[in-house]
Amino acid sequence: MSVQFFAGMAEAAGMRRLTIGWSGGSVAELRAAIAAACPAVGALLARSAVAVDGRYATDAAAVPATADVAVIPPVSGG
Fold first, then answer.
1. Looking at the domain assignment, is residue 16 inside a domain?
2. Which of 9, 10, 22, 61 could tie 1 with a disulfide, CB 3.0–4.6 Å?
3. Which of 54, 45, 60 is nearest to 8 (CA)?
């Protein structure tokens, strides 16, 4: 599975895309797999939104192996 990173997440990871082995599971399980594959993003990942096939997903949501996944870090502004 390919996971796309944006903004500060891409900067922390040092890449815009991470490829991991994934046979399916929940968003929470996917977060754990991403953190294991790229420990540098662990703290930011916990505060970031995950989009599955173009829609924001809760940690309980299913993520099939064929899903398009993006991790969007929190943004600030004023």
1. yes
2. 22
3. 45
Cβ(45)–Cβ(12) under 8 Å? no
CATH no. for residue 43? 3.10.20.30
In a domain, 78, yes or no: no
State the amino acid at position 2 in one-letter form. Answer: S
Tell me how far apart the alpha carbons of residues 1 and 23 are, in angstroms, rounded to a whole number: 8
* Pairing of the two strands 69-72 and 2-5: parallel
The whole-angstrom separation of Cα 57 and Cα 55 is: 6
With respect to residue 77, please indicate whether it lies within any of the assigned structural domains.
no
**Range of 22's domain?**
2-72
Q: Residue 56 falls within a domain, yes or no?
A: yes
- pTM more than 0.85: yes
Residues in contact with 5: Cβ distance below 8 Å, sequence separation at least 6, in sequence order: 13, 15, 16, 17, 18, 41, 70, 71
